[in-house]
Design a protein that fits this description.
Order of helices and strands: EHEHEHEHEHEHHHHHH
Number of strands: 6
Low-confidence stretches: none
Number of helices: 11
Distance between the termini: 35 Å
Mean pLDDT: 86
Structural class: alpha/beta
Radius of gyration: 17 Å
Largest sheet: 6 strands, parallel
């Protein structure tokens, strides 16, 4: 059972997301919060597996809350909720440790899928928003491209193969199938990749891969 928390200052949004998640037999909403401060309090009081966190909230915004949540002794995975007009905040959220982001108008089935994927250790990026954000990021951060390419030099050819599929959103099981490897071997490669790239999660590793031109 995945233990989830909804963090949004809009009570109707919290209600809607709670109803959606509670409709999945594999998910239980164990906490709600109206801002980042409440989110940290709830995550300290309850064991949370996945937190859906809005970006723009009073008292403590979603980016700061994400960093605080990820710094807890038992940190939950975080999915940031955003809209296109908040592009500039999404990279900050990912840098703070978010495991993915969704647009608020994402199809309900995709939201449920995202919770399951993130809880299992994968990442979830809304495809359209991801493409738009990556294009914008490249346009304003060319030095990052050279830095990312230098980071990839730390990887073996096999690790690059794994990273390329990871960056496309494949799960460990998907990668194992496509590369004819054991899933445990894929997990070991992913752990080594995160260490070599000096990143904390799969989303950040995927961004390095895309910055370096390993994927499009």
């Amino acid at each position: 059972m995945i233990r989830a928390m909804i963090v949004d200052d809009d009570a109707l949004v919290r209600l809607g997301l709670t109803d959606l998640l509670e409709g999945d037999p594999g998910i239980e909403v164990v906490a709600q919060a109206a801002d980042g401060l409440q989110a940290v309090e709830q995550a300290t009081a309850h064991r949370i597996d996945v937190a859906l966190v809005d970006v723009r909230m009073p008292r403590m915004d979603g980016i700061t809350a994400t960093a605080r949540l990820r710094a807890l002794p038992h940190p939950p995975k975080v999915i940031t909720l955003t809209t296109f007009d908040l592009d500039e905040y999404v990279y900050d959220a990912l840098a703070a440790g978010a495991d993915g982001f969704l647009l608020k108008d994402t199809d309900p089935a995709e939201i449920l899928r995202a919770v399951h994927l993130v809880a299992a250790g994968s990442a979830m990026l809304h495809p359209t928003a991801a493409r738009r954000l990556i294009d914008r990021y490249h346009a304003t951060n060319q030095p990052q491209v050279a830095a990312a390419q230098a980071q990839l030099e730390r990887l073996t050819p096999r690790e690059r193969d794994v990273l390329a599929l990871l960056a496309q959103g494949d799960t460990n099981a998907d990668i194992a199938t496509r590369l004819a490897m054991r899933e445990s071997t894929v997990k070991a490669h992913v752990s080594r990749i995160l260490t070599a790239l000096a990143v904390t999660n799969r989303v950040q590793a995927a961004l390095v891969a895309r910055d370096a031109g390993l994927t499009t």
